[in-house]
Specification:
Blueprint (H helix, E strand, L loop, with lengths): L1 H15 L23 H38 L15 H20 L6
Helix pairs in contact: 2-3
């Protein structure tokens, strides 16, 4: 009975410790009015820089999610101490959500000012 309980706890721990895939991370809300004082050139430039950062964070987050999935599979099937691998590496979920929010706010501000077509 103790082994079943310990196994269930281990599975629950490994499943909750996994990093999210970047496409499952929603953007935090950022008001477009934050960028209302910027001109089109500034909005486009900053939006391009943010897009580069979003792509980098998404790549890093995908790598973390993939390694967590592998470690979880190994932990469940072969070797439970592999579950401790889930704690290694950086999870970029919060930063990615915030950066996605700024990208969306810049896009909305740019549309409002006529910088981008709809």
């Amino acid at each position: 009975m103790k082994k079943v309980t310990a196994g269930a706890c281990l599975i629950a721990l490994t499943l909750t410790a996994c990093a999210k895939s970047p496409d499952k991370i929603s953007a935090d809300y950022v008001s477009p009015t934050v960028y209302s004082s910027k001109n089109c050139g500034e909005i486009v430039s900053e939006r391009n820089a943010i897009a580069t950062r979003v792509n980098k964070l998404a790549d890093d987050q995908q790598s973390k999610a993939t390694s967590d999935a592998v470690a979880t599979g190994v932990a469940i099937v072969l070797f439970w101490p592999a579950a401790f691998l889930l704690a290694t590496g950086d999870d970029h979920e919060n930063e990615l959500a915030s950066t996605k929010g700024h990208y969306e706010a810049l896009t909305q501000a740019g549309i409002k000012q006529g910088c981008f077509s709809v």
